[in-house]
Batch of 2 targets.
Target 1
Amino acid sequence: MTANAAERTVLLRELNRYRARLKTIASVRAAAVTGLALLALVIVAAGLTPLGARIGVAAAAAIVALGTAAAAAISAARAPDLMATARIADVAVRGNDAVVTALECFRLRPTGYGATVGADPVGDLIVRQAVERVTRVTSHEALPLELPRICIPLAGACAVLLIAAMAVPSSVREWPGEESSTRAAIDSSGDAAASRGARRTSTTQPSATGAITSRAVMGAATPQEVARTERGGASQRSPEPLAGARREGTTATSDAKTGGAPSPRDLEPTRQDRRGDPSAGANSGTASRGSADAARSGVAAAGTSNAGAGAGSSGLSSKASAGAGGAGAASPVTPGSASRAAASSEPASANVPEQIAAWKRAQAAIAREQVPGRYRQLIRGYFAAIPPPQPRQPGQPGQQ
Amino acid sequence: MTGTTQTIEAQASTFRDCFAHLKSEIGRVFVGQSDLVDQLLICFFCQGHALIEGPPGLGKTLLVKTLADAVSLRFARVQCTPDLMPADVTGTNILVEQAPGVRAFTFEPGPIFANVVLADEINRATPRTQAAFLEAMQERRVTIFGTTHPIESPFSVIATQNPIEMEGTYPLPEAQLDRFFFKLAVHLPGIDEMAEIMARTTGEQQATVTPRFGAATIASLADLVRQVKIADDVLRFALRMVRATHPNTGHAPAIVDRYVRYGASPRAAQSIVLAAKALALVGGRYHASTEDVRRVAMPALNHRVILNFHGEMERVTSESIIAQVIASAG
């Protein structure tokens, strides 16, 4: 190999080094930008949206790592060819287009590299000058690794978001009703029974201060839904269908005695659900299904018995004969219990006009204010949750 | 391709020596304006023709005469006037008595057959006489009475013109302007330079120039210039620049579309590339670079851009247009 051929080999080797360096730089830059952007997105998702709250740290780290690796791989795959590398190297070593011209001198040789060495003395001189240029500095010195400028604001944004996410309490970050609806959707995975059970609580139990609970806002709907809620709520309390139905009879009676207000025991599953316990949601779903079975068996067993219509606290449930009747049918029908049921149905029946009135008020308000469709459900829930103040009748037990 | 790498290196070294020698010799007589001297020498080594424009008294003629004195070449000067005839430039057949009673027509070459021709105040010559320069400048030959006479290499016509005295002048037509490799402008020197000029020209001793390098050397160096390589990227950069001087081509900046009637010809691109190659040799390189192209674009283009009516009325200069063209080309 002649000296000129050796110089050409050196030039090609150096160019390949520069190319590898460019690959590395492109990969690192792309990885840095993508990683920071993904990190910011994950922080925003985790901190500001309820869905993000479900993303674990490991999953977030995996997302960031995978995205970063993909960006690096794509950048490496899109590395410049040898001529583009020569152009960049020319700029980096201030070669005044020496490297590009030298590379073209290779290509202008019709017989290929090395076969006509010495036939183009000017080309050989250009190659020599190019080799001197590119070997004077290493590729690391000529092409220093500099992160893109956007990395600094991105990193700053990530830091600010991280601090904000840690500083702001979780309750502030959620809209009213957001937590319950999202978690209920996640927990039950389509199990409507659990959410109906949750709505039952809200429709029958306004908070002591009169404020709307999130469940009330999101849950309450039409009177028919309220009735369905009653059934779901009744069944929710009994994981075991038949036993639950039996207990439902006694519980309904006790509820009726207390004016239809649910006992603290009634609220127990709801609290679990509010804490986001998946098992609670699952149990609720199971209980709901079991209750439905119990209701069907109740229909079969007791026929048209409507005595337990007031099993739930809502008077509307008396119009829904099958489910509620099932609950009543499961309990042993004795004259005493029948009379207690009839007695307990009175305050529940008194609730019916209240619900209907709330429904009418809501409809009127919706029509008057021209409420958009997406907010109508909230308005209905509001009117259902907060009944107008009524004078307390003597002898009627007060609400808790 | 000629010679080996050693030969090429030796020729390149000679080129740099010659360039430095000419520059220093000119600098002994002609004060300042280094860029102007560089551009004139580049034009000279490319075997191009230069048009030097400037007010009277700035040393245009002195510059060309010093260049001719610094090399051992034949120099001729043509003072262009309205009554200058083409035959006064090209030469003619004259009846010569070769022997007693024997007379024959003999070609008597004109001043155009010198190596360096100074056409002083060329815009004062009539168009007919100006046209006499055309064939010589482009074809490097003269045809008289059906006989073609080649002009020896190296050959350069360096013309001067005065831009402020337009009375009784015949501005060069665009076709003839395009024959000039470069158009160079002589600017008014500064106070220090003028003081130096006074010191050199009003004293007892006059600066003298030592000639060196003959015609053969200059011709071989001109050949060497053509061996310099130019990468495709650099070439396309030059071509983009030339293309951008034409209005409504999609490559031109807005000022070209607005003020230019016609842009530079491919001959301008030839000038740019050749000059860039010569500049590369001056810089010790064997390849022309983008920076070389940028540096030679202005003198190569500024007489080839023809302004339209709006440009003339708004007194837009071709220099300002070309500056934007260079910037827009990349």
Target 2
Amino acid sequence: MSSQKHGAAFINRQSFIELDARERATALFDPGTSRELVGPFDRVESPWLPMQGVTPQEDDGCVVMKGKIGGQAAVVIALEGAFQGGSMGEVSGEKMTAALDLARADSERGIPTSAVILLETGGVRLQEANLGLAAIAELMASILAMRKHAPVICLTAGTVGCFGGMSLAAGLASYVVLTREARLGMNGPEVIEQENGIEEFDSRDHALVWAINGGEQRFAMGLADALVDDDTPQIAEAIRRFVTKGLPPVHRSSQVALYRRRIEALDTSRQWDPKELRTLWAGKGSEGDK
Amino acid sequence: MGEYTGVRGTVWFRAFTGSASPMPGDPNSVLTADAPLGKDRARFLCVVPDPHARFPCARHGEVGLEEAYTLAARVREVVDSDKGDVKRPIIAIVDVKSQAYGRREETAAIFLAAAAAADAYGSARLAGHPVITLVVGQALSGAFLTHGYQANRILAFDDEGVMIHAMHKAAAARITRRSVKELETLAKDILPMSYDIRDYAKLGMLYKLLHVDNPEKPSPQETQNVQSELAAAIEDARRSPVDLLNRLQSKGALEMRKASLLVRSKLEEQWREG
């Protein structure tokens, strides 16, 4: 299903990136089947931000919706990149973890329920430091428990990308879906430059950043399962496909021997052209589309 | 607290296992051994600095690509070999200053390596292995997510050199545009921001704080005491569910994580409607 980037297709595109978290989540469900849980009217806000003079948000930048995707029960959890950079605080973190635990409980009861997590985040919210880090650890635990029963699909569309501790959550996913506007990595370029100098990483070299963290590269290295255009119907279709597909035979983060061998085989005496790794790692996304 | 040295991990690994060497084929930065603990034989794992590590940005005790995949492999080995048998306890001794911040690491997807280690620890816990973490020094950020934070029970020394945090002080100060002093003052008022291990303990995620006179030089008696505490944590983990909800149901969490508890109860209630 490779759509060419010619004029008409581009003009007719319905951008997903331009949508906010709530619109993004809604767009992934079968029309008319979704409802939001613990939404803005419940006003469960961060108790820690006002103590530091930061205005909290009624949904803490995290939208949880339940409904159907491809006719099957699903929960979508979307982080709002426009609020505090999509960072994980106590409330947003617990929303994600509790929603996954409820989906797992339903799966165990015989209602297979998939989860889709929309990650636009820089990781831990510094104002909630240790509760943010703990929330990520607990989220990861819940992803591991949930993915025994039904797939956990992570989608990063851009423009924030997925960084910090939350990149580990993406690493645990059953399937990863990225656009070319998405970036996925653990340490942002600024952090690397700050810690180890500009010779290690020049954070102003945007071409380098995209060559390493960009969606196209991650997909070509086999670290994502689909590369999609910034087009809402196309993204919804990719998500539907993975929900319908069910669990992968083996999760990427469990393929330890394979990746350990790959790391061992790398020449660490020099920096690499990111393209080399596409060839070395034989860039097979489990889907192989595009 | 002085400069990070990373000696504590080796000291405690040796105290528990009688040796401090990697397993054949492993990098020198990951110590793994099986040793008696209470009435069990436990697997001990620890990440230590290796000045000659292959990856230049992982030579000072950082958790990098090789460290993460080695941890993952050594934890999975235990899970695979104990299938249908007594589930060996897994003990993560933690003194890690950070994940490795390097271009090579990003290019070769350190996020997946870190996830693979967390996957191994978390899957071991779900399979019924008591996974116990002992924080003897630093437990920072992505390094702790990779090595230690998936444990059933976390214990830490009540000591100034022990720190569990999302970001080290210098970086946090820089990003929030404060001096380290200002950051420390603010962190005193906002509990989750505090760098003090006693404040961390109040959040309810810690199973126990242990006192040791000098964590860099434990006496045989102290080593024995810590071993008994680990054995007690193993027994407690064996009697309890394999999830991490204990962290949210603790006395500390009832006080400090009220918002989390509110989110969970509202979500449960609304999940079932309609």
